[in-house]
Amino acid sequence: MISSIHRPTQAVIDLTAIAHNIDSVKEHISNGTFVYAVVKANAYGHGAVAVARSVEARVDGFCVSNIDEAVELRLAGITKEILVLGVVTPNQLDYVKEYNIVLTVASLDWIALAEHEGVSLAGLRCHIKIDSGMGRIGVRSSADANRLITSLKVAGALVEGVFTHFATADESNTQYFEQQLATFKQILSELSDCPKRIHASNSATSLWHSETIFSAVRLGVVIYGLNPSGRELALPYPLQPALELTSSIVHVKTIEKNATVGYGATYRSQEKEVIATVPIGYADGWTRDMQGFKVLVDGQWCEIVGRVSMDQITIRLPKVYPLGTSVTLIGQNGYKEITATDVADKRHTINYEVLCLLSDRIPRFYKEQTHDK
After folding, report:
1. Which residues are in the Alanine racemase C-terminal domain (predicted)?
2. CB neighbours (10 Å) of residue 186?
3. Active-site choice (36, 40, 224, 346)
4. What residues in the chain have per-residue pLDDT under 50?
5. Are 158 and 125 in contact (CB under 8 A)?
6. What is the reported pTM?
7. Is position 224 annotated as part of the catalytic site?
8. Is residue 263 flagged as an active site residue?
């Protein structure tokens, strides 16, 4: 999808805010901890290349979802370690080695497949994944973990790390988190040849369970200034949201009482009203369920009326504003603010999804400015 740079809808990313958030987390964890910045899914919608370039000096490596995300960073000049968190099929290993990418190996079946396909594991850099209770990928016992490590080393691979992922680190009830942590520690204690780099801490764990950090952390949504728990847990220290989503009014009209707006005629005016059109829609990731939500114009709340279309929304204004008037969908406008979590609440989802859904049609612009810690 082409970036629509000639349309007023845009996402503005504050790179200094991201740097501030990384520094804030690092101030609250042990010195010497290896810090990964997670930039998968286009850096949670913020732009992977721009974010990685801006923070490379502040972190020790990066985490991505797949090979293509890793190669994108390498081609952009990123030289630090890149760990792929998802499963990569063995037939891609020549590509992996060419770009010096670190892989996750999650099962003995994967090694068997590599052997069956005649794929050499010699020189492969990898971490093994432990499924301590997340239920997605990874071995579930120390016996399988030991066999995995041994098999990889016999095949000439370099086993540099071991990790797991917590399912409930962002929840107030810590029972299942503690159960997963105990399982992971037990498996580690039974490894006959434990890799040096051990990591289990995602954003939530780094914020609310920093005492459980091993030798590395994976900082994801926290570096973009979002609360991983939504509203369930208060942040232990301030973060600065890095993304602002704005557009402009492109059309204004006054409609009479009982006039309808939008597909399905789902909105009917209660009186004479001023309706404005804003060029953003579900093709941009501003989904149809945002009808009834509000945006900010001139520091005032303005309701989205009528169904969200593919390319446009309609909002009710308190008065006629000129074409080109700014509209804030996420961010501050006057003394009011809309957060990604506010949008998530409307959609009954999480703030991660809100930002990851912002499509490539929305151009990203970058700024750097001074922030107080």
Report:
1. 242-367
2. 12
3. 40
4. 370-373
5. yes
6. 0.94
7. no
8. yes
